[in-house]
Amino acid sequence: MGPLKVAILYHDDFKLHRLDPISHPESPRRVDLALEGVNSLASQGFERLLPMVKAPKSPLESFKLVHDKQYVDSMEGLLRSGRVSWLDPDTYVSPGTLEALLRLSGASHKAVSLALKGVSSFIVGRPPSHHAGFKGKALKAPTRGSCIFNATALIAEVLSRHGRVAVVDIDVHHGNGTQDIFYSRGDLLHIDIHQDPSSLYPYTGFPDDAGEGEGAGTKVNIVTPPASGDDVYLDALKLVDHILSFWKPEYIVVSAGFDAYRGDNDMTVTNVGTRFFHLIGRMLSSKARSVVSVLEGGYGEGLRKALPAYLLGLMGKKNELWEPKTRSSRGAWRLYRAYKKLTIYTIVEHGRIMLPEELESEIKREERVFRLKEAGAKGRKRKRLKKGWWRR
Fold it and tell me: What is the pTM of this model?
């Protein structure tokens, strides 16, 4: 297979969502940095494979496909007032937020039309999406996490009417909004790689958060500890590969966050280099007819370096931004292995996704050993009680 095109969907209106003076990490500077990353590839001769496409406008009504109608209507009323308003300590709206969201809605529909033609795309837009749930705040998170409407969910919802869909979230934070929207949907797979929820907002996304009702077993949370490097993330990538190989999606929608890249921001302590982002881009493009990516996190170096590495992977090109493999601490590896076992055990328990026999056998073997140890401990306790050891 030759190199693949990835359309870059963008409009300057995405910068209109802003505070003056800029005093928030989720600011217009993020799209400037993202475009800097894209343009760094264009200057290396990849411009033909990264065509710039103007994001059109589309009504906010579209978001009612994935959000509560009353929530969308109330938000639109607030947006049309043109006031600066804080929805919560993390999330604001400004006079230009309406225009940015109209473009985000339009970019989502344009991305769907391209995907149906077999063309992958990347939406360099804002505000971000994946923390926005059905009614705003999701899964008891304290805030909306700078997100107002969920473009990732909107794209996945529309594409699901045309074929099998998987959502893959690689942002360092759990995509609680997307999971909230699709938690009971059995036809939509959601895989989320994120830092340990006990250490990072939104404090959701543990391995046993696997969906409910028809959706039980189709929501997969892969947890990475703080101080994780490429070795942990590349191991997680193998598990994602196995799951997608079973699911066989026609379309993949990616919550593309680059805040796990080392040194990207002060909020996280992950140590991931460009290697992971390049390889997951390459793997995803091989698993589906088309891949739609929506910009989520990333506040600095992640947008300059990890984003272009990811695009090179999607295009099937070599990683021109090669970096030495980063390694995790011993403690991070131990915690990651424990979380991974819980994830695999949850997948096996629900039976909606079949994994390679060696992975399932390992978990079943450990479960048998645990039960034998537990039974042995109970037997020893009964024996001690029979002898009346407590009287001694």
Answer: 0.92
